[in-house]
Design brief:
The strands form two sheets. This protein has a six-stranded parallel sheet with strand order 1-9-8-5-2-3, with helices on one face. The chain is an alpha/beta fold. It is globular, with a radius of gyration of 17 Å. The protein has six helices and nine strands. The structure holds 6-phosphogluconic acid.
């Protein structure tokens, strides 16, 4: 039985990002107190930029247990790590270069293999080793959603939506959102999370968000519907522009 998602609507993007940042800090503090490590999945795209910047500055910077924090990514564009499209570069420039997280606790998705499938296989092995350390779970996973209902690099109608549950990482070709080649965690990998926070902003996502949250279950058309942690919670943090058609959780 899946927990029903919570839907929180914020007046604007800064308010949403502040709330998300505070949730990350709380989750980290609680998990480190209980298990001495906090595994956080980072999202790409543009929405999380402000959240990363908030975590990199006071007062939240010193509230985060960076020495016990591990970061991985829910997807990556298949470009060099210094390419403007790189999700790793986004996180490095806005967050990781500004906080005392041990470098060995940062798990970037490799993009230097000739064959992206080799990169996916290598990252899957890294993830499995990390999940062994973390009692087989990602503690908090940050997710975005595109106007077409994609999440991570799981796109409507793509074969990666049908991977077996024991596959954690896939190579994606012909992504409709450029660049076309990507590496993505699968829904099965993301659903190991104890907590998923979706950050969704902008009027261009309002109709899709309503369909994802309140429409029929059609994950091939709306891959974001695949994200339903089996032993975890999902919270949608939505700004007013994206939330015009969804009811806030009572
Ligand atoms: C990516 C992201 C992708 C993103 C959504 C939302 O690599 O592009 O992982 O899934 O989260 O497309 O992107 P925005 O935050 O830019 O709207």
């Amino acid at each position: 039985m899946h927990n029903q998602p919570d839907i929180l609507i914020f007046p604007d993007v800064p308010a949403l990002q502040q709330a998300a940042a505070e949730r990350v800090v709380l989750a980290a503090q609680e998990r480190v107190a209980a298990a001495h490590m906090f595994v956080c999945g980072l999202s790409g795209g543009s929405t999380p930029r402000g959240l990363y910047q908030l975590l990199a500055q006071e007062p939240l910077r010193s509230q985060m247990p960076w020495a016990h924090t591990y970061v991985l990514w829910n997807d990556e564009r298949y470009v060099p790590p210094d390419h403007l499209d790189s999700n790793y570069l986004l996180a490095r420039e806005t967050l990781l270069d500004h906080v005392p997280i041990p470098p060995e606790q940062i798990y970037p998705i490799p993009t230097y293999y000739d064959d992206p499938r080799e990169a996916a296989a290598a990252y899957e092995q890294q993830m499995r080793r990390l999940l062994e350390l973390s009692q087989a779970r990602i503690d908090l996973m940050l997710m975005g959603m595109g106007p077409d209902g994609h999440t991570a690099s799981l796109f409507p109608g793509h074969p990666e939506l049908n991977t077996p549950d024991d596959v954690l990482v896939v190579a994606v070709e012909n992504a409709p959102k450029p660049p076309p080649r990507r590496i993505s965690l699968t829904a099965a990998a993301i659903n190991t999370s104890a907590q998923v926070l979706f950050l969704v902003t902008g009027a261009d996502k309002a109709e899709t968000l309503q369909a994802v949250l309140h429409g029929p279950y059609e994950p091939h058309r709306l891959p974001a519907q695949l994200i339903r942690p089996s032993n975890g919670t999902t919270t949608w943090l939505v700004d007013a522009a994206a939330g015009t058609r969804v009811a806030a959780a009572t």
